[in-house]
Write a structure and sequence with these properties.
The chain is 7% helix and 45% strand. The chain is mainly β. Strands 1, 2, 5, 6 and 8 form a five-stranded antiparallel sheet that branches. Strands 3-4-7 form a three-stranded antiparallel sheet, with no helix packed on it. β3 and β4 form a beta hairpin. It starts with 15 loop residues before the first strand and ends with a strand.
Length: 134
C-alpha cells in the first residue's frame, strides 16, 4: 500500500514589506533602536536571532524568534531571512511562519539551521508579511 501525503500552504497576500533589514537584537539598547526604525507590521517581529546550543564539538545552531501581534485581529506571519558571514557571503537562508497569533498575544518559535557556527553571522529579514488569520 502506498500512501501519498500532499501539504498545501496558502497565504493570502496583503501589504508586504520587501525591504531587507537586520534582525532585531535582544540587547535592550539595540531593541529600542530597532523598534524605533521599524514601523507597521514589521515591528511585530520583536526578536529574531541565532541561539548556539552546540555541545561537545557538535554544532547545533537554532533560529529563535518572538512575535507580538500589535494588530486588532488574529494574524499569520511569514518572513524570509538570510544568514550572512563577515565577508558578506550568504551562508544560509529560509522562510519562517508563525500562525494564528491572537491580537495582543506574544508567540515564540524556534527552528534548527545547518550553520556550523554563529560567530560573525548576521541575520537579515529580506521580506515580512502579516495577514489576517481566519
Amino acid at each position: 500500500m502506498i500512501v501519498i501525503v500532499i501539504v498545501v500552504l496558502v497565504i493570502s497576500s496583503g501589504d508586504k514589506d520587501e525591504s531587507t533589514t537586520s534582525a532585531p537584537s535582544t540587547t535592550p539598547t539595540a531593541k529600542t533602536k530597532t523598534q524605533q526604525r521599524q514601523t507597521g507590521e514589521r515591528a511585530d517581529l520583536i526578536s529574531f536571532q541565532l541561539d548556539d546550543r552546540s555541545q561537545a564539538g557538535i554544532s547545533n545552531i537554532w533560529l529563535v524568534w518572538t512575535i507580538k501581534n500589535s494588530s486588532s485581529e488574529k494574524s499569520n506571519y511569514a518572513w524570509d531571512w538570510e544568514a550572512v558571514d563577515a565577508a558578506g557571503t550568504r551562508v544560509e537562508d529560509g522562510s519562517q511562519l508563525e500562525t494564528n497569533v491572537q491580537a495582543g498575544q506574544t508567540a515564540r518559535g524556534e527552528f534548527p539551521t545547518t550553520l556550523k557556527s554563529a560567530k560573525g553571522i548576521k541575520l537579515n529579514v529580506t521580506s515580512f508579511d502579516r495577514t489576517a488569520s481566519y
